[in-house]
Design brief:
The protein is of the alpha/beta class. The protein has 2 domains: 169 residues, Rossmann fold (3-Layer(aba) Sandwich); 88 residues, N-(1-d-carboxylethyl)-l-norvaline Dehydrogenase, domain 2 (Orthogonal Bundle), CATH 1.10.1040. The chain contains 12 helices and 7 strands. It has a 5-stranded mixed sheet with strand order 3-4-5-6-7, with helices on both faces. α1 packs across α2, α8 packs across α10 and α8 crosses α11.
């Protein structure tokens, strides 16, 4: 999701640097920003001048020090692995000012645990964006007990600058959106597993019957089945009486086969592109 976060920040007038350890991944991220802007222009959603200005504000680097130099805000969007996120923020903290906000795009992990051992943990906060970032209107802001009120205010203002509606959530496993969205998604997968209805009809039940903009199985394909599995495993151990978060065997089997959704071309739906 890093390229999407970079795009909306650049569109709002921020100078942005995309970072990854893999130089090819950096180039791919910058290219995806450009592709999104091209699509927006073709649909009349953005002017050529605004698209060009957004492009100019986005750079890329595989040098962490260069990427975070003079940054006011660093948003990480690496995989949902607490040790990986902590290690990355430790490296970032050694290279930025003590006033730089460290924001995590986690959809479920503890902000408190992420901040443990970091210098100035009061600047660590959760910024849970939604995919695709340039289209989705919500930003879930998660504050740990140690997060400074000023940091909450600055990040909330930043979200509003990006054109997002922000909600403030206490640091709790799964926060608000992942707990609610995941339990529906897992139950939909169980229904497929049990032969209750087809994938398409389960999704139609929620879009036409309940007004969901997208069915839970198609959404799972967009989020990534591996991401959903990781969150489910985490919440099933972190929350009391959380049997409803136990991953269905079908989800485990599909992830084991590499059927992760849109990013691999196959999930509950085929994604030929």
């Amino acid at each position: 999701m890093g390229h999407g976060i970079a795009q909306v920040a650049a569109a709002a007038g921020c100078r942005v640097c995309l970072y990854d350890v893999d130089v090819d991944a950096v180039a791919a991220g910058v290219a995806r920003v450009g592709a999104n802007l091209d699509k927006g222009m073709s649909r009349g959603k953005i002017s050529a001048a605004d698209a060009a200005a957004t492009r100019r504000r986005v750079t890329g680097s595989n040098d962490l020090g260069e990427a975070v130099a003079e940054a006011d805000l660093v948003v990480e969007a690496v995989p949902e692995n607490l040790a990986l996120k902590r290690r990355l923020f430790g490296d970032v903290a050694a290279r930025v000012a003590e006033t730089t906000i460290l924001a995590t795009n986690t959809s479920s992990l503890s902000i408190r645990r992420l901040a443990e051992g970091l210098p100035h943990p009061e600047r660590v906060i959760g910024t849970h964006f939604f995919n695709p970032v340039h289209l989705m209107k919500l930003l879930e802001v998660i504050a740990a007990d140690a997060t400074a009120p000023e940091v909450v205010q600055r990040v909330t203002s930043f979200g509003e600058r990006l054109g997002k509606t922000t909600i403030l959530v206490r640091d709790s496993p799964g926060f608000a959106t992942s707990r609610l969205g995941l339990v529906i998604g897992l139950e939909a997968i169980r229904m497929v597993e049990q032969g209750v209805a087809s994938v398409e009809d389960i999704d139609r039940a929620m879009t036409l019957g309940y007004g969901f903009p997208m069915g839970p199985l198609r959404l799972t394909d967009l989020v990534g089945l591996d991401v959903r599995l990781h969150i489910a495993e985490y919440l099933s151990t972190e929350l009391p009486d959380a049997a409803h978060f136990r991953p269905p065997q079908l989800l485990r089997d599909m992830v084991a086969r590499g059927e992760l959704g849109k990013k691999t071309g196959q999930g509950f739906y085929p994604w030929p592109e």
